[in-house]
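User: Can you fold this complex?
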Amino acid sequence: MKVPIWSEEISKGNQPEILFWVGCAGSFDVRAQSITKAFITILEKVGYSYAILGTEEMCTGDPARRAGNEFQFQMMAYQNIQLLNNYNIKKIVTACPHCFNTLKNEYPELGGNYEVIHHSTLLQQLINEGKIVLSENGSFKGKKITFHDSCYLGRSNQIYDAPRSVIEALDASLVEMKRCKSNGLCCGAGGAQMFKEEEKGSIRVNLERTTEAIETGASIVASACPFCNTMLTDGIKLNEKQEEIKVLDIAELIAQSIK
Amino acid sequence: MEIFQQILFGLLLFTAVYFFAKRIGLIKRLILLGQPETINDHPSKRWMNVILLAFGQKKMFKNPTVAILHLMVYAGFIIINIEMLEIVIDGLFGTHRFLLTLLPSFYGILINLFESLAVLVIFACIVFLLRRNFINIKRLRSKELNGWPSKDANIILIIEIILMSLFLKMNAADSLLQLRGVSPYTEHTTGIFYFSSLLHPILNSYSDQTLVLVERICWWLHIVGVLAFLNYLSWSKHLHIILAFPNAYFSKLEPIGKLKNMPSVQNEVLFAFQPELAQQTTNQQPPSFGAKDITDLSWKNIMDAFSCTECGRCTAACPANQTGKLLSPRKIMMATRDRAEEIGRKIEKDSEWKSEDRSLLFDYISEEELRACTTCNACVEACPVSINPLDIIVQMRRYLIMEKSSSPQEWTSMFGNIENNFAPWKFSPDQRTDWTKESL
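Assistant: Here's the predicted assembly.
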């Protein structure tokens, strides 16, 4: 697979339209890598002009900031903003709501001003514009799919409809969990919880969440966040439902259905 | 006799207002112990929040049944207070039903409106009492409400029922005296009060003299009750009926996922990378990072704490709390207020307060609680009066990491990885593009 790298494109005299910010999960986590690949499959298919930063990309600093390490966050933000500004990057898309929130809401006051969109919004746009054409007899047609709202996409940035309209474009039947949209229950990964063991309690957060997802009777739990994906996949396994229920990112759903 | 009553009324009113104003002065002083923060951008958006969130109680309507019951109490309480204006004028000037002379044709409608609201208030308060004490609603049964908080809630509901009952009984006695042609009541013909006249059968057996006494006693108890309640609410969780308004005005307008920047840290980092661009710090005192006590928080955080009515919608929405962790956003707010009140008592006693060994973090809020937060913003979203518990949690996390270097082992490794590998996991930066070498 040949993925365009921003620095190489520049040296060839190209200025890609959009930077795909892969994020640490999308780069290193094996499960999340397939989301990255699925999203790239879509970008390639519709012929979108994009590139990634490659090895120049760094953590946005989100988990450090939320854990309380503001110094580290500021260090990461400074270095990333320097890089992005030097490349004169205007538009960024990312499949990670945590990177999205940091790039969109927290970098501007540190000197990083970009048009930042989440991949769910871009996918919705491409579907609406007719650039993504889905096969008529896709494998998700009529399937029951439930969508898990990522806190950093939903409550934090009020993006509830874009991922849902992407699922509806598959002709699937979208079923909601009891706690959804602004009342959505967290998967348990935010605030740097992804990187540590949970505090003592009665049940794991992801187990609580996936129990609710299972109650909907859906055969697919769709997510739009690599961290949520990991937490939900683990939760489905803890519930011993991994044979019946799959956790898939909306980019994977589209990549599998695109013509 | 009449003049004696007027003087007594004047004294009562003055005392009640004096103590209330004094208490509000202390609360203001406690709020201002917080760090300065300028919040004055987008005034039109802020006024919109006051209208939608405070007046309109928008967030309450996530649960329409409870919202309508709450609206009954709230509307009743606000609107019936117009009646207070009349009571104060009557009390000070020895008049009787002053508004009747002012609005003769409208008066009957007005009082009947107040009476219907009073009936709704009583109904809603009884439902709330039953809900709170006999129905197992998790957020109203948490252990953090044991003792004073749950007693406070019941006291408020019972006082409201008593005040409304006194108002109705007073009207019932008054209209019955009018029917019997007793002076001076008969000179103030109000027409029929539909709700309170239902009490006539109970009062019928009383003599005219007793009835006059009943009317006067109800009038006095009602106003004394209202003035006492005014003072009580400033000590109680009920203060939200006042602070909900400024709290909505000063609430966050930015996307709730954005954390507050720390310009001091930003500047230090800039100093490390590009010293020529960093501001030279003239401040000799080394800055302290994050929050350990209420004096490190913003004034808005402390106002949040005084605005909290301990309804627990935040805690009911909290993923950590729902899965049995120690964290409860409501408890964070209650602890912040308790700590402010503790400092308030010291200010009252010694007329000033200097920092001591006790603090909000450690003595009121533990590390374990703060660690359990997923920063999901469910508590912020849930709060009907625009309180932000997450802001306090993050500021305390900052103190723990940056001042105490206290972090769970896994986070220490994560910080190390970010510092050395620019990713929270232990992968080398060269491996960041390894996935591109695989097929799609």
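Residues 138 and 316 of chain B are 8 Å apart (CA to CA). The radius of gyration of chain B is 28 Å.
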